[in-house]
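Re-run requested by the PI after the first attempt was lost when the workstation crashed. Everything re-entered from the original request form. Ligand of interest: iron/sulfur cluster.
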Amino acid sequence: MDLLDTLTAKGLRGETPTREEALAVLATTDDELLDVVAAAGRVRRRWFGRRVKLNYLVNLKSGLCPEDCSYCSQRLGSKAEILKYTWLKPGQAAEAAKAGVSGGAKRVCLVASGRGPTDRDIDRVTDTVAAIKEADPAVEICACLGLLSDNQAERLKAAGVDAYNHNLNTSEGTYGDIATTHTYADRVDTVQKAHGAGLSACSGLIAGMGESDEDLVDVVFALRELGSDSVPVNFLIPFEGTPLAKEWNLSPQRCLRILAMVRFVNPDTEVRIAGGREVHLRSMQPLGLHLANSIFLGDYLTSEGQAGQADLDMIRDAGFEIEGMGEGTLPRHRADIAADTAAGAVGGCGTGSGHAGAAQAGGAQAGGCGTGGGCGPCGGHGHAAETRPASEAVTGTAPAAPAADEGADEARTDLVRVRRRGAGTELAPNA
Ligand code: SF4
């Protein structure tokens, strides 16, 4: 049985492949790309049909962060010309959220830059959640506020928050290369706090920071072990003014291989194409929908995405459907686990569509609390270049060391647009 048959069979059973098999996916060639997408697409449809979940970001507080995540346009010392503002008022945030929900989003992701929330910040978010739920009780809410202290996750849960996003971003082995003001262990601790409080854990990664294939596989397996209900996959947006502004090393083909690997390792988990979708996948975005079952509608935290209507048209043209507010996101067995976790934690119902306690879905953001480019990240570090043989991988033989992506982007800075509308501005949001 060749590699793709093995991976598909395991994925259809909800099983996790071996690390070697995951590495082999990343080592496949461009000639094999459509075979890889077709195989992972079967796994995607097994657990998520042709539904695409829409999530909408609301940047509650932008820039001015004391942390030094090297990928982030909001980081300490960033010279990126991004919007900088302090906390939105609950009414302002609810207005922004309404645009996303009326655009088709079923989850609103509330994000604030910073190391972590104070108890006063939790009060603010509590008021914001109330304002949003008053307008639309069925909407799911994810919070992404950075490192959590004791009892803060429980307070967010009690306030009606359904999920918490805190990405691991990269492997434990290279975490120190992308941030020094907090640790990988700090991140794992926050994800576990959120999960323990009955919040749906949303935790993902940033690809394109010069990491090796082994690093990518490491972080994706770590996310599987953490039990993340949703995995945002960010593709680095190298923001001018950040340490990784020159780090252009992704190609649409590489991004699709990474999404396929994430799907195979997390067959029954919400996989989301997050920040960098437009910049790096470009015209290949529809192929990404065969691998991921979730995207962000509209703009990212500090950069602009394509028009909301373009997202909706793309989904329909590619033969997919927008996941409805009343539909669960996670497959039944995962939703039940999530509901039990939520109920066990606070005796409440699990999250899910319309709070039916059924479905859980993931959350949002890269970085401590935010994302560089969008929900995502900004920046990466040195790129390991090696060479690889063609096509052995697909026949199941262990791949040689992966090669730098020949098709890697030249610096497509023309595609990076700093957000100048929506939250924190007088201009209408993109939704
Ligand atoms: S990712 Fe979050 S914590 Fe890190 S620098 Fe950006 S805003 Fe700050």
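Saved to the shared folder this time. The mean pLDDT is 88.
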